[in-house]
Amino acid sequence: MTTTTSSPTHLNPAVLQASYAVRGPLATKAEHYRAHIKAKGDNHDLPFKSIVTANIGNPQQAGLDQPPLTFFRQVAALTEYTPLLDDPRAQDLFPADVRARARELLAEVGSTGAYSHSQGVPAIRQHVAEFITARDHLPAELAADPSNIFLTAGASQGVSLILQVLSTKTSGILIPIPQYPLYTATLAALDTNALPYHLNEADDWSMDPQSVEDAIAEAHARDIAPRALVVINPGNPTGSVMQKETMQAVLDICAKYHLVLLADEVYQVNIHDPAKEWVSFASLARKNPTEPKVAIVSFHSISKGVTGECGRRGGYFELLNFPAEVTAQIYKMASVGLCPPVQGQIAVDCLVRPPKPGDESYPLYEKESTTIARALKERTETMVSKLNALPGISCQPSTGALYVYPRLYLPQRAKEEAKKRGQEPDEYYAECLLDETGICVTPGSGFGQREGESHIRLTVLCPGVDEYVGRIEKFHNAFMKKWE
Amino acid sequence: MTTTTSSPTHLNPAVLQASYAVRGPLATKAEHYRAHIKAKGDNHDLPFKSIVTANIGNPQQAGLDQPPLTFFRQVAALTEYTPLLDDPRAQDLFPADVRARARELLAEVGSTGAYSHSQGVPAIRQHVAEFITARDHLPAELAADPSNIFLTAGASQGVSLILQVLSTKTSGILIPIPQYPLYTATLAALDTNALPYHLNEADDWSMDPQSVEDAIAEAHARDIAPRALVVINPGNPTGSVMQKETMQAVLDICAKYHLVLLADEVYQVNIHDPAKEWVSFASLARKNPTEPKVAIVSFHSISKGVTGECGRRGGYFELLNFPAEVTAQIYKMASVGLCPPVQGQIAVDCLVRPPKPGDESYPLYEKESTTIARALKERTETMVSKLNALPGISCQPSTGALYVYPRLYLPQRAKEEAKKRGQEPDEYYAECLLDETGICVTPGSGFGQREGESHIRLTVLCPGVDEYVGRIEKFHNAFMKKWE
Q1: Which residues of B touch A313 (CB under 8 A)?
Q2: What is the pLDDT of residue B8?
Q3: Which of A468, B59, B146, B200 is a Cys-bridge partner for B126, taking CB atoms 3.0 to 4.6 Å apart?
Q4: Containing domain of residue B464, as a range?
Q5: ipTM confidence score
Q6: Which of the residues in chain A have pLDDT under 70?
Q7: Closest chain B residue to A73 measured between Cα atoms?
Q8: How many domains does chain A have?
């Protein structure tokens, strides 16, 4: 077709560089299989009954069907269609606290159809600040400040915004390997430098401060100024929860090298091991300040935890120790996008102010959230133990987040076959897994790993874990045998 | 404060360059005034009773209170809190067609809390394609294709995405002057070249193809390759509706210079003059193809028209005549943001499939949308005529969109005073207007204008137009007198 379109060679070269594995070719192939099964019914010719979507942390999607928390959805319905608040026929349909919350939010928001303040509805930011202050047990003089809270369309949008503001050609952003590919994709599109530091798989994917020091030294040798450090805690894809001592060491490094700390803390509620305590970087930095103080951006989201409201696109970030001139630049860029979705902002309000004991909604809320948390914990433990029982697989315990991230020790002949096909070994493995079992996972090459290593990331969101890990076992044993 | 934060001089220099007038310092000052009035009640010391927000096209915001269309909100409530669909107590609360639509959408979406396809829910894209085909009276062989539709978080996000993909250092994007500052802000942040072409104020802000040719020649002289041409039709801030002949000339220029046409058509429903007919660029390009065919991106939104659902963040763009490799790059970047808000997507479905005659919701929908359209038309005409009656103001008729954009002929001494304060003359005028009357407008310098000119943009969304244009009249006469 001859048209006036820029051919790809005329496009933004930084965009051409970017890649994003979580929604890459395997995910697309899985969608085609799903459509095929839907169209053909029982007459399809695929060697599996259904697609298992284990490639993306999307709890409420079809087939996973994690139920939304009722409180969130009742507040959403009343704020969307406000005549329900006063219609006598609707009086019995909503608990008193839901009705009160909807009225309170509407008084602040006006209409969910109006642009809000670009930084988010002031009252909701106030509630986020109160949530942080309570969560981190902050004394009044260290309380969080709503003017430093930015509501966002999911944490992803916040991360993109901050990376955009901080990036320059001659500086770089330190990122963990493995990492959530939002970081590499966004940095590539910004034409700036991703500076990888390696997590320590053998030690539960812990963060080794020395690996950060090494990455900084390497950047300096290449005349690149490290400007910020990304930490994902709990880890994605690793499931690792950081220890306080390591976190303090990270803060010390940020102080020493004048780094902004980007704390991706969206999985803060997903802790599966009662022995692990999650604490925020901001709370440590507030209570035990370094000299100079570390500037921190802390990201949170409604998409993870037990909420799982990915499709509503809500989240926030808090800026700590940012000078007003930098905050003003961040605000300016936020304002170009006008505002985050108001219904996502309302969900953030529900996240930071859930029903409390005594509220009419509390018993149901408590039951729903406990049920989800228990299922996530049990599935995680089952998956790790079943995967570890397979030959050629070793899987670190996943104590947080929504993923297991096993390492694959693949036969040499399988690696050669992958190379022949122009794929990484774990891409080849993941594609065979999809083709033969209908299970869609994300290959480790999309998250980054050391040369020669292979991993896959599976979410812990799929029900029927015995059945579907059974499919993996069968496939894996046959695969290992075929290529041994 | 000593912290590890990058000082502004360490930030992305392109971000520092960007500016966005619609939510600039005047809007912030207006918010402070509003908060002051709210806090002090009747005891405030400001010389006006209330803030009139005429700076941004945000129909449902407090004080404007354009009601949402009931059909949209009923569908939203049922898709958010699905137990209402089956609860016998809720049977009378929603019309049959609303219930049917909610069930149909839920069958496609699953949960509003799940990430959708990154390009948007396939069934909703199918409905958008059918809407375009019907709106543009396309024969079957020219029908719109859902695989070329991308749902977005408002048109702004779509524009940013497309500009990001098309921008390079050595190329540029042709933009109208005056323009909606999303374009200049985004292009500045992308560190690419905005190539201005001037609209013809004396001829109802029409587009003069020669001015585009001139801008292209100037770009070539600077060794910049023009890559795309932005047209806003109906115009923002101008209110101008393009004639078919001009549109064909634009398409010919795009074909001649191999330009992608970015057609910002978000005000397509806001036509105040029955003699003006709005047609889409894509329909002309389909029915009367040039050689080569012009690649077009057409943007639409739920935020404008009579819908005014800004806060939900919904919209779409259609790609026409784009090769698959370029579409794939656009898809990749869309996928990094995961998906547009699902409730915004649902509102797009309502936009492109409103109730039709015979549906239970139709009479109310028809009444609500007609009432809004009539109010917008009447206010526009009143404002233009009252403004034109003032000395030192001339205002072109605004036949489309949601704005009037009068030119100000300010006294020389007022200009000198502005210069002393480091402001553009129209910025100074707009700030005095806000300080003395509480009316917040956007100065023309934020949209771009010729050296020495002054304009302001006012939305036509404020009720009580006689009273508030009365405030402007009083202020304006005093201002002109003071500085004459």
Answers
A1: 153, 313, 338-341
A2: 67
A3: B146
A4: 8-66+367-483
A5: 0.93
A6: 1-2, 6-8, 21-23
A7: B81
A8: 2
